[in-house]
Amino acid sequence: DSTVDVATLLLNPKILNATDSSVLEKLPEVDYVTTFTLLDGHPNSLEGHGTASDIEVVATSLNAQKIIGQKMLHGGFFQDNDYSIPTAVIGRNVAERYFKSNTPIGQKFTFGGQQITVSGVIQEFSTNPFLSGVDYNNTIFLPISFAQSISKEPLEPFQILVQPKPEVSADNLDSKIRSAMSANHPDQ
Q1: C-beta pairs of 16-22 under 8 Å, 24+ apart in sequence
Q2: pLDDT at position 132, please?
Q3: Where are the alpha helices (DSSP H) in the chain?
Q4: HSE (CB half, 13 Å, CA atoms) of 83?
Q5: Phi and psi dihedrals of 117, rounded to 5?
Q6: Are 161 and 8 in contact (CB under 8 A)?
Q7: Which positions ≥6 away from 176 have C-beta within 8 Å?
Q8: Other Cβ atoms within 10 Å of 172 Cβ, number
Q9: How many CA atoms does the CB half-sphere of 8 hold within 13 Å?
Q10: Contact between 122 and 70 (Cβ < 8 Å)
Q11: In a structure prediction context, what are the per-residue pLDDT tens digits for the chain, which is 188 residues long?
């Protein structure tokens, strides 16, 4: 269980947009930014274990693990060269309940008409660290560029995570984020 000093933007998904993360990355107090985008649909098959309607599929970047600080049980999180390939990091419950294995590295499932290979299993989250309503233990994480390639719609984040630089606290970054977001959404 890790304590994370991170600013989390949880807004109506219709409010956040893809340019918000770019705006926040430009703030000098920011170390890393990542988005979480919830994709429509569920995996079609998980190595013959059938449909898993309680599994969420989330697109994100390699910065996600840097920000959340959650350790990997097996395999690894996304690397720079993984953005456009069909690879996934899965929550522990997905591994155990649907793959019937705590190390399903290399196993495949289908989502969005594409066969995707499991490259990592993330350590169990004891609680939801970001109050998003998503159970990350029941989540499949896809690289955002790959997810966009199989999505029929532009990907809009439901959550943006911002990691301040080591010398900056999340509280001190709060007003800068509010100003940047207000400027990017002047009518809201």
Answers
A1: 16/156, 16/157, 16/158, 16/159, 16/160, 17/156, 17/157, 17/184, 18/154, 18/155, 18/156, 18/157, 19/184, 20/157, 20/160, 20/181, 20/184, 21/157, 21/160
A2: 60
A3: 18-25, 63-68, 92-93, 144-150, 170-184
A4: 9
A5: -105, 135
A6: yes
A7: 27, 29
A8: 12
A9: 14
A10: yes
A11: 334 445 555 444 567 888 888 999 999 999 999 999 989 888 876 765 655 778 889 999 888 888 888 899 999 998 877 778 899 999 998 998 888 888 899 999 999 889 999 999 999 887 665 556 778 888 999 999 899 999 888 888 888 888 899 998 877 888 888 889 888 888 87
In whole angstroms, what is the distance from residue 138 CA to residue 132 CA?
Answer: 13
Kindly state the tokens that stand for 30: 């920011």
